[in-house]
Amino acid sequence: MSTGKSGRESTGGVQSLQRAFELLEGLADTGGEASLSELAATTGLPMPTIHRLIRTLLSLGYVRQNANRRYALGSRLIRLGESASRQFGTWARPFLAELVDQVGETANLAVLERDEVVYVAQVPSTHSMRMFTEVGRRLLPHGTGVGKAMLSQLPADQVRELLRRTGMPAYTPHTHTEPDQLLSHLATIAEQGYSLDESEQELGVRCIAVPLSDAPVPAAISVSGPEGRLTKEAVTHIAPLVIDVARRLSKQVNEHDLEVGS
Prior knowledge:
Layout: H1 15-29, E1 33-34, H2 36-43, H3 47-60, E2 63-65, E3 71-73, H4 76-103, E4 106-113, E5 116-123, E6 138-139, H5 145-151, H6 156-166, H7 179-192, E7 195-198, E8 205-211, E9 219-226, H8 232-261
Antiparallel strand pairs: 1-3, 2-3, 4-5, 4-9, 5-6, 7-8, 8-9
Helix pairs in contact: 1-3, 4-8
């Protein structure tokens, strides 16, 4: 198989289609806005190819040109992303339900979208006192268990750039608000395989979150509940269960991608 300048192997598909998606992913990798020269550097595509593809994507609404003449992801991608997120949530629900059966607390699936954590699926606990994070809710990643789990899988320079764009407001007195401190914390999360939200997003709530591996977008699952039930001692027993479910959900997602691409 041959490998193009973008570093991806040719799959025998339609090259122009592959390159169009490489261009869209390149835009996403730059934070959603870039110049043509930045896209050339990011994707490795020839400038004439980028000009031709950009014109087509502009006409279809998948790319837009801002007043500063830089290019950004277009609004027509939102519908595709929302549909994909709903499908992702459908795949995840049986795994989340299994977690609820095992630990008795609310289970969630979230993805990282446009610098924000978006909750795309949930199975609630059967307890009368339980945690509700409605599907569709958006939060900044530095102050959530699922957000920190996802950030722990990204390169440090990419995390710094994201934090620069979003800022680090404090949801509670326990929220991380310093980039260096958070980056050190993320290294620990990456090593242990899960993150904890210790009243960082909401006082009195503890959350255990685990990133999905090799997902098409950064994603994580979590269980959350009152600190009185989800104690530090309970975390030692529950974290391995969440890690196991995340591993199996990641495997299913990756196998589905292979089936679609075969």
